[in-house]
Design brief:
The protein has eight helices and 13 strands. By secondary structure, the chain is α+β, with helices and mostly antiparallel strands. The protein folds into two domains: 112 residues, Alpha-D-Glucose-1,6-Bisphosphate, Chain A, domain 3 (3-Layer(aba) Sandwich), CATH 3.40.120; 84 residues, Alpha-D-phosphohexomutase, C-terminal domain (TATA-Binding Protein, 2-Layer Sandwich), CATH 3.30.310.50. A five-stranded antiparallel beta sheet has the order 7-13-12-11-10.
Length: 248
């Protein structure tokens, strides 16, 4: 199997959490830099949601103030929390080195990537899955609530977000199409007008209500990655489908 914290690989942990009536299951990948979290119901919790919960925790409970950073492929829940607390927001290409650079220049107190990577003030300028898992445990202990309760409270405050990702193989034709799109980006997708176009890493179209779609080249594999986020699974899936159709 792959050494990642995927839904499939965490099957044994999910069963153990339920059987032992645990409040939390914590996993890391093989080298310990990425995290995987299982809630009290034995469900794997989306890594973007964990990042948003932890940001809310250090800001609301610990009273931290300072810059916040996320990659272009990371949930805009981070943006909503930063706006709510009037915190500077930095957007980076995918790749932890960009977050680490901001961290080392003391620009941020929090940095997160959708691939379950976290950087925090007063810690190493490197992703640390063990540290992230421990912080989740601390958050539960400090709040006295379950992960499900904390998640629902976050959604009530900032709105529910649903994100997704799909990878397709990189072919010469798809590479040419994506490079053309980056140079001459569309300003509409499926009848929705983009309020912003980002080409920091691939092509990202930002819409109203913090909805977005992103197409980018993988930096590690011969793939094109498509991401989307919306307030509903239906609209997220539609944006992702329309994004992929730009390459067909």
């Amino acid at each position: 199997m792959t050494p990642s914290c995927s839904e499939e690989n965490l099957g044994e942990l999910k069963k153990l959490v339920v059987a032992q009536k645990c409040s939390l299951g914590i996993a890391t990948d093989a080298d310990g830099d990425r995290f995987g979290i299982v809630n009290e119901k034995g469900e794997v919790v989306n890594q973007n949601l964990i990042l948003a919960l932890l940001l809310s925790y250090v800001v609301d409970t610990k009273g931290w103030r300072g810059g916040v950073a996320r990659s272009v492929a990371t949930t805009h829940l981070v943006d909503r929390i930063a706006r709510k607390h009037d915190l500077p927001l930095f957007k980076t290409p995918v790749g932890f080195k960009y977050l680490a650079d901001l961290f080392l220049r003391r620009k941020i107190i929090f940095g997160g990537e959708e691939s379950a990577c976290l950087a925090l003030r007063d810690h190493l300028p490197e992703k640390d899955g063990i540290f992230a898992g421990l912080l989740v445990a601390e958050m539960l202990a400090a709040s006295g609530q379950t992960l499900t309760e904390l998640s629902e409270a976050l959604y009530r405050r900032y709105g529910r977000r649903v994100d997704g990702q799909k990878d397709i193989s990189l072919t010469p034709e798809r590479e040419r199409k994506l490079r053309r799109l980056i140079k001459n980006p569309p300003h509409k997708l499926g009848g929705r007008t983009a309020k912003g176009v980002e080409t920091l890493d691939g092509l990202k179209l930002d819409f109203d209500d913090d909805d977005w779609a992103l197409l980018r080249f993988s930096g590690t594999e011969p793939l094109i990655r498509c991401y989307a986020e919306s307030g509903s699974k239906k609209e997220m899936s539609r944006l992702m489908k329309l994004g992929l159709e730009l390459l067909s």
